[in-house]
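Appendix B, example 12.
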Amino acid sequence: MASVADRARALGATWSSGTIGGIEAGRAKVTVETLVLLAATLETTVPELLATEGDVAITDELILRPGSLPRLLAGGHVEPTRALNVPPPVAQPTSTEKRVAATLGIDPETLQELAQQLWSRSYEAERDGRAGEGATRQAKAAATRELQAEIREELDRG
C-alpha cells in the first residue's frame, strides 16, 4: 500500500497508505477524481479498475451485474437487478453494541439484527438520531434507555 501511496503522491495526491487501505476496504467514498488518479497510479484504465467478476451492490437492494460499471462509463445503458430479501452486510459489533447487548443479556449480533429490524439502521445511528446532533451525554443516555425499552419489548414478543 505504501508504494501505491508513494506513486500517487508523485502524481500530486496527498494520499497515505491509510488512504489506500480505506479505498481497498470500502471505507472511503471514491470520487471520479480518485478513480482517475488511482488508474494513473496503477497504470491502468478506469473501466479496468471497475471491471468485476461478481455482482456490485450499489445499495442493499440495487445490484449491478458483472461488467455493468464499465459499460455505464462508456455511455451504455445497463438494466439494474433488484436483490430481494438480501440481508445487509453485518459489521463487527462496536464497543457500544457489545456493552448494550451485555446489558440486555443478548449477543451483539442479535442486537445488530434487532436494530436493523426495528429501525433499518444500526443501534448507534438510531441512538444518535434520536439524541440529536451534538447531543450531550445525558441526551444520549435518555435515547439509550428508550431504545433498550423498545428492544426489550421486541424480545418479549419474541
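The mean pLDDT is 83. The chain has three domains: 1-49, 51-86, 95-157.
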